Amino acid sequence: MAMNGTSRNMTGEKSSNHYDKVEKKPFIITRMLNKITSSMENGFYMLGMLIGNHPLKSVLLSGFVVGIFALGVLNFTEDTDSDTLWVPSDAEVFQDKTWVSANFPSTLRTVSVIFVSSNVLSTSAVQAMNTLYKSSLGLTTSSGKNYTDVCFKSGSNCLVNSVLELWSYNDANIVAASATDILNTINTATVSPLYGRPFDVTTVLGSISYSSGTTVSAAEAAKITFFLNGDSTNKDESMAWETKMVDLVQNTQNSAISDYYVLATRSFSDVASDAIGGDISLLSAGYMIVIIYIIIILGRFNCLDFGLGIAVCGILVIGLSLGFSYGLASAAGWKYTPLHSILPFLLLGIGVDDLFVIMGAYKSLPIGYLDRPIHERMAMTLKHAGVSITVTSLTDMCAFGIGATTVLPALRSFCVFCCLGILALFLMAATFFVGCIALTAKRRDADRNSLVCCYRHNADYRPNECSKTELFVAAIKKFYAPTLMRLPVKIAAMVVTAIFLGFGIWGFVVLKQDYNPIWFIPSDSYPYKYDGASNKYFNTGAQASAYCKNIDYFSSKTQFDSLYTQLTGSSYISTGSTDSWFKSFTDWLSTTSTASVTSRLDGSKYPTTSTNFYDLLYEFVTTEATGLRHRSEVVFTNNSGVLGVSASYIKFTHIVLTDSTSKINAMENTMSIVSDLFSDDNCFAYGRLYLQWYTNKVIQTELYRNLGLAALCVFVVCLILIANLFTSLMVLSCVIFTLLDVGGMMNFWGLTIDTVTSIILILAIGLAVDYSAHIGHCFMTFTGDRNARVRATLVEMGSPVFSGAFSTFLAFILLAFSNSYVFTTFFKVFLLVAVFGVFHGLVYLPVLLSWIGPLPYMTAERGESGAGEVELRITSADLNHKSRSSLQGETNLAMENKVEDPQLQ
């Protein structure tokens, strides 16, 4: 063997001992970082020794401790309110919502039914709607309550809004009405004969056809809305009746109606819960697929090395970590949301990566180590794998830790659950799983069957040679690694990387931002279908209002007049939709001739005093026909007989807005109109959908903020634990490139920036680090020239990294068949993360390291020839079948055939 410090590697290239190249003492920062790395390696070595000496105690103790923390689920709480989940509690729009709820409380609950036909105004269609209405009156809850017992009343009648109210829901009149009668009634009605309020046909009919300008001739859809009293006394009974009504509509068929759609107040929460439960089967099947894959990868198909036991241990690590996360987070008061349903898949995908790395380190122990005592094997395994899984676990926790600082409550809670779960995965992998490996090694050394542990094989049993072969490792060593190190292949790899990056940047720049809560329920659910029908046939703009608090209304005439003018003139508000009680009031004052009113007005037809203003306003909204419709829009106070107004609102409707940018602009425009006219936050614009639009407004900013901070934290962690600036920068480039590629492809796949994709993009940082940090760290532990070190790194870490990514893909593959937007989106983006993450980790990064990779650690002792030499390993079990002398002879022969390496001299 050559002794001059140089040799030739497998491709004929010259190789040098890296220590011969080091002429200067490393920088102090480098020495400090190396000290941290060596200290961690020593710490993990000692931990491995401890676990190897007491494997059963380690398994039981770690499982017991995690089980104690899991008891926190006794404090488990769930939150499904989209307002509190996706809108910051300190956001102005959320505070506006709180004020509106307090001053204009609504306990109304509704059930809406949409009827679709070629013409819902035909006699048969109208009678079919009437039949459903009569059936609804016969529905009773388990306690015997029917609709009249739980309905919201308008006067003495239950409030039900539909075209049928034009006949006062009189069965005989509806049955007797001809097609001509129906059209005449609809075209002449301006006031509801049942409720005495203005009747607008466009609110109950959709896709209307007109003849002679404004005369209704037909319609494709009709809507009937039942209003229920949902106060604290009636809420449970109202909800029970809603369920009965939904069942009735779903089981109704009539030849005159082609489609029925129904939506109740409780529908979204019911379907969201059912969706989560319905995908449990996908979760179970996904776990089974991963178990099978772990058996194939971590075990061998013989009686001594079958991987069922180690696979079950790996799944137990995931399950215990999940329990730890749920328990500790629940104990700390964090709430579970529908978004958290993806957490089991997430921890499965992340956790399996660490398990593969640990098993990869165990299988890649130096020659002869598998013949040593178990505690030494575990010590060396953790020494090599401990720092690697620490890097990835800490970077994942940093990514989610940054996400936990977001202003979006649901995202913050999800990230906290994830942080705790990843922490548990790390601790359980380093203790519980290593203990399981030690127990497996102990059983294997005793020649006990891998399935029936009490059965011991005879001394002449020999596992078949095929089962001992690591096919994937062998393929990497013989084909992939040497091929990748060829110059033309390196150039091609970099060209492909550049192409991916170009398309990624382009797609990421044009990636749209949008969010709709309806996406969180399955596409085949009845609320989802109702939403689609409503948008198709009753596509009207969002309703909003300008609210005012306890202000001096009497002295604010100029502001209210200007408010009406600006709202009606806004390009974001539908023409004619602004309905101002103040405008109606002043119009009445200017036209009335009642002496008791005019005597209290000045020359401009305005009340002479504040007292006259409030007294006349009360008279207007309680007695005048034109003012009755505004009664609920003004809240009066009575202080010792003196009237005042504590709150009011002016209604308007936005135009139909199709994208998030226009919605945000519309919200901000109306908000500024109101706030500019009224100082000190006394008045504001608010609509129910403003909460959703505000989420759209902040989510993109939050995403870029979280991504930037997470990338910075990942780089710092990699710098400290990998202990090399250049390697850390290369790993960071893998993360950024993967992120850009995934974001770009999301655009081409039709996805947008929303709450779900924002979470996955943050997660992509952690997963991309997993795929590249293992490679970067392993590269630093090998000696030799760069190409040799890359080959050795790929042999040792290629299989664990690929297996980790592939197992993550397997865990999510069944989600492609889910009807849940959350699950299908996770599948799409995780597929992209896995593909681009593996590409950058196993193609781009190795090529980069082979060109400009830094020198190895000062403590590095391994050369290329020591990596992946599975065929040279000797286990204690083999000693039962061969003499030590013949075994040593085989080892010597193998060593003679090995490539010369100065690090082994």
Characteristics of this structure?
single chain; 905 residues; alpha+beta; 31 helices
Note down, in words, how this protein is organized.
The protein is of the alpha+beta class and 905 residues long. It is 58% helix and 9% strand. It is built from 31 helices and 13 strands. Strands 3, 6, 7, 8 and 9 form a five-stranded antiparallel β-sheet that branches. A four-stranded antiparallel β-sheet has the order 11-12-10-13, sandwiched between helices. Strand 7 and strand 8 form a beta hairpin. Helix 15 runs antiparallel to helix 26 (690-722), helix 15 (374-403) packs antiparallel against helix 28 and helix 18 (471-484) packs across helix 29 (786-813). It is elongated and about 110 Å long. The model is unreliable at 1-24 and 868-905 (pLDDT under 50).
DSSP E strands, number:
13
Shape: elongated
Strand content: 5-15%
Structural class by sheet pairing and helices:
alpha+beta
Q: What is the helix content?
A: 55-70%
- Main sheet characteristics: 5 strands, antiparallel
Distance between the termini: 8 Å
What count of helical segments does DSSP give? 31
Low-confidence stretches: 1-24, 868-905
Overall pLDDT metric: 83
- What is the C-alpha radius of gyration, as a whole number of Å? 36 Å
Write the layout of secondary structure elements.
Elements: E1 6-8, E2 14-16, H1 18-21, H2 28-53, H3 55-70, H4 82-86, H5 92-103, E3 108-116, H6 123-137, H7 147-150, E4 153-154, E5 157-158, E6 160-161, H8 171-176, H9 179-188, E7 205-211, E8 215-229, H10 235-250, E9 259-264, H11 267-278, H12 280-298, H13 308-331, H14 343-363, H15 374-403, H16 409-445, H17 465-468, H18 471-484, H19 487-509, H20 526-537, E10 543-548, H21 557-569, H22 581-591, H23 595-598, H24 610-623, E11 634-639, E12 642-653, H25 660-677, E13 683-687, H26 690-722, H27 725-748, H28 755-779, H29 786-813, H30 821-852, H31 884-897
Antiparallel strand pairs: 1-2, 3-8, 3-9, 4-5, 6-8, 7-8, 10-12, 10-13, 11-12
Helix pairs in contact: 2-3, 2-15, 2-16, 2-26, 3-13, 3-16, 12-13, 12-14, 12-29, 13-14, 13-16, 14-15, 14-16, 14-29, 15-16, 15-26, 15-28, 18-29, 19-27, 19-30, 21-25, 25-26, 26-27, 26-28, 27-28, 27-30, 28-29, 28-30, 29-30
